[in-house]
Design goal:
By secondary structure, this protein is α+β, with helices and mostly antiparallel strands. Helices cover about 40% and strands about 20% of the residues. The chain folds into 2 domains: about 150 residues, no CATH class; about 80 residues, no CATH class. Strand 8 and strand 9 form a beta hairpin. The radius of gyration is 31 Å and the shape is elongated.
């Protein structure tokens, strides 16, 4: 009888007690592992926390083609802008500089509202370029899509919340493609009194980019036709070399005034009427044709994008690039401005 009782005790221990003990230990180990996993996930989430914008975190974006105004997170919007405005194969520091410039330009537009029901629009002719992620990816080679977009996001996220200020106000952060070696002051492009932080500066290395040099060749009649769209009474004596002549240059070597027969017009206007990429041009005439040899691409004011890339490739940081192109400015957190 005693042996039967002992066997019974062992049976209960083996069948019921041991499983409970091991199950408890497994649960404890699982709980420890789960806590470790949660801790690691929490750490990763903390590292990727979005910038806590006190204001300007969401903007109203006007899509001009549809007239739809969309509420969008500013850094999401900036990824679309940077991917539209600057090639993804540019150096990461140039892309960061572009992200800071684009954020500054956006906030300047918000504070100096132009659109009635929106903060900014998606047109480079009015505000700054914008492209949807879907369209941007479609235009890249399939093998580069993921890496390119990740690089754009890295540039925007590494510069979260940063803007350029002058006297604690966001600047009007103009930028362009290629300065032709020297940037321009706003007064020579748009008139007015200009901005003290937008001065003429030199940038090396821009001549290695395709945007640096271009030319437009017109017949005599083509030249007349283009000028007549603005000046219907234009008359040029093509046998007289003095009838087509650059009269004056700006300090950045761009054409300030050019003579076309009976009219003297600004270099900026000539650029528009004749379809030139820059107001930095020279003119030659030969065999009934007029050739405009152009340096640079864009209005030339503010940051040159190819200049930024050239500086980045020389080892300059995004902040150094910005301080080169914008005079006497500070880079601040957007939350620090009133």
């Amino acid at each position: 009888m005693k042996k039967v009782f002992i066997y019974f005790i062992w049976f209960v221990f083996i069948c019921f007690i041991l499983p409970i003990v091991f199950t408890k230990k497994d649960k404890e180990v699982s709980a420890i592992d789960e806590n470790n996993v949660n801790k690691e996930v929490g750490q990763e989430e903390n590292n990727e926390e979005p910038y806590n914008y006190k204001q300007y975190g969401t903007i109203k974006l006007l899509h001009l083609k549809t007239g739809i105004v969309e509420d969008v997170a500013i850094d999401t919007y900036l990824c679309n802008v940077v991917s539209a405005e600057m090639p993804a194969d540019f150096d990461i520091e140039a892309l960061k500089a572009q992200a800071i410039v684009a954020r500054t330009y956006t906030i300047y537009k918000i504070r100096n509202k132009k659109h009635e029901n929106a903060d900014i629009c998606d047109s480079s002719n009015c505000c700054q370029a914008w492209i949807s992620k879907e369209d941007r990816l479609a235009r890249w080679d399939e093998s580069l899509r993921e890496s390119n977009w990740n690089k754009i996001e890295e540039a925007v996220n590494d510069a979260k919340g940063k803007i350029i200020t002058y006297q604690n106000e966001p600047i009007n952060a103009f930028f362009h493609s290629n300065s032709g070696g020297k940037t321009e002051v706003p007064v020579n492009v748009w008139g007015g009194s200009g901005y003290p932080y937008l001065q003429t500066v030199e940038t090396s290395g821009e001549d290695s980019y395709t945007q640096y040099a271009s030319e437009v060749i017109l017949t005599e009649q083509e030249l007349l036709d283009k000028l007549k769209t603005k000046y219907s009474d234009i008359a040029i004596d093509f046998s007289n070399l003095q009838d087509i002549k650059i009269l004056e240059y700006t300090d950045s070597n761009r054409v300030k005034t050019v003579k076309f027969g009976n009219h003297n017009i600004s270099g900026v206007e000539a650029r528009t009427l004749l379809g030139l990429k820059s107001a930095n041009f020279s003119i030659t005439q030969e065999n009934g044709k007029i050739k405009f040899s152009v340096k640079g691409y864009g209005h030339g004011v503010g940051m040159s994008q190819t200049g930024a890339d050239s500086m980045a490739k020389q080892g300059n940081s995004a902040e150094q690039i910005i301080h080169h192109f914008y005079t006497d400015v500070e880079i601040k957190e957007v939350n620090d401005i009133v």
